[in-house]
Amino acid sequence: MNEKVRQIQQEYQKVRELSNYSIFDIESSLKDLAEKGFVWILKDLKEICEAEEILIEHYLNKFRSYQIYDNLEVNPYLQSSIETAAKPPSQSSLDFAPVQKEKQTKKQQHLEVRDVKRFIGYKKARELEKKVIELCQNFPSYEVDHIVNQIERSARSIKDSIEMGEQVYVGERFNQYSIAIGSAKETSAWLQMSLGQKYITQVQFDELDNLTTQVVRILTKNLSNIKEKEGKGMDLPNPFTPNVKNFGAYNNALLLVEKIYEITRKPEFWKEKNLVRKMRKRATSSVANIAEAHQLYISKKFRFFNDSMKALDGLDSLLETSLIKGIISEKELKEIVELRISIRNVLSTKMANISGEKAS
């Protein structure tokens, strides 16, 4: 890797740390880099979250003609940026404007990097992934491209995020552990939907669901200790997340999945494989996103609730298509729509509250 590129990436990581990884704080920094021709440099960073990936891609596309790829060694703007990398962000020629003064003056907090393979949370996550993969070998073939892929992906994400969290920056560990916690809750949701369709037994569900709960507890305990000790003086989120199984919209979304699977198994749908696939995907996606929204950062909570809303809207459109084709009755449609609306109303209220939290 070009040394100049590496140093720009390191400078950006410092800004992320100072802003406590708030996507709202660093968005204008990404835009600033794009306008000056260097946002492409961040695409190789492995530590960036999904929201950052989306923003980087957005600004890269918007300012693609601005990007400078050649002669980095002699580029005067880039050189001056690197020379001032050690200065506070407000003095850097990259001019990362959104970082507030009080955050700039906070002491950079660091953690001791440990061998992740010796961390009990990582061991539990690896065990969970192995058992999920073994379990999925007995799923119906028509679920390979849907539930199987999704549950294996979410289980793998827990382990991968824990591994990425084992680094020196406190804020990044919080960020990666938050992703791992969300993935654990999503994995539990896919397990619960699999149980509802009788793809797994109650005993199998209880064993793996208990394993995901153990991972969440271990990560939460670690984050709580870090917040009280190494993270003092930093604006870190509360590491404790609510139990999604006590959330009414989540349980109603599970009922919605049951109804969609029940209806799409009827003979009227046998010739509508593509419609069946899409309807099931939208319904299950709503559940998975509600579950994954139960994590640490406000911006992530909002985004996952919003994705659940989009899935519900997509399902509504597919239901109307089914009605037009005459493969679903008005009565069946009414029951599902009422359930969908009840979920949507709860999510709307929750998102309004989250927006209030951000504003305050």
TrEMBL record:
Membrane-spanning ranges: none
Domain of life: Bacteria
One Pfam family named in its UniProt record: 23S_rRNA_IVP
InterPro entries: 23S_rRNA-intervening_sequence, 23S_rRNA_IVS_sf
Protein name: Four helix bundle protein
Species annotation: Bacillus yapensis
PANTHER family: FOUR HELIX BUNDLE PROTEIN
